[in-house]
Amino acid sequence: MPLKPGEKIEDLQNGFAIIQNPSFFAFGTDAVLLSAFTEVFADEHVVDLGTGCGIIPILLHAKQPAARITGIEVQPPIADMAQRSVSLNALDARIRIVCADLKNARDHVAHGVDAVVCNPPYERVNAGMDNANAFLNIAKREVLCTLKDVIAAAASLLRTGGRLTMIYRTERFAELMDVLRAYHLEPKRIQLVAPHADKAPNFALVEARAGARSGVKFLPTLAVYEPDGSYTPALKKIYHIGEEKPCSISWPHP
Question: Could you read off the pLDDT of 188-238 as tens digits, one per residue?
Fold first, then answer.
């Protein structure tokens, strides 16, 4: 697989690999946790909104090879890199990358998908200074899409009973719940994520279902780090690693 300037191939330690470029937003532990949290079943059609480098479709395929996955990415060079990662792993028959604005997802994906997944920008567009790197700015902040845009797109794609899974900052958790319910997506399964067991959670993994009745299940809080800075057993299980082979991807501290 020919690489473009600045690109490298990263081994995902699960039989697959991915192309990365330091000029673009690199995937992190949040994408890995979201993939682990997301339930995917055989023959389902799953859409990843804002797929970036394509890490979530590849990780979901590793969980459920019989699923069909569409990744939507608005930035052409990143969508191209994601497509080449799909081809690198010979997954073109199972994963499709579409370069498009997620707000227009219905133009590229028929209504009635089984699941939508999204690791959206966490920061409001007016929160602090812009990043000088436009690619990073778009990935981290609501420059091209807001939380409402993401959830509206998911609601437009999902069949009744279909699932949306997301990861989001706890400081905007109430806003997330409000917008989900405004689009008739009922929160059903939530897992809070904390940097350490004795620290307050700073992220939430959320599954909501289209047209479902109210009633939510909270899973045990997931701690990322031990007091000595190593990963907890739960994180090591997600990464399929032992203590002798720590992962290089870091989780953002509060």
Answer: 999 999 999 999 999 999 999 999 999 999 999 999 999 999 999 999 999
In angstroms, the Cα distances linking 143 to 24, 139, 140 are 15, 8, 8
Instruction: Give the model confidence (pLDDT) of 56-78 as tens digits.
Output: 999 999 999 999 999 999 999 99
- Is the overall model pTM greater than 0.85, yes or no? yes
Beta-strand pair 203-210/158-169 = antiparallel
Domain 8-191+204-211 has CATH 3.40.50.1820: no
Instruction: Look at residues 153, 65, 59 and name the one whose alpha carbon lies nearest to residue 113.
Output: 153
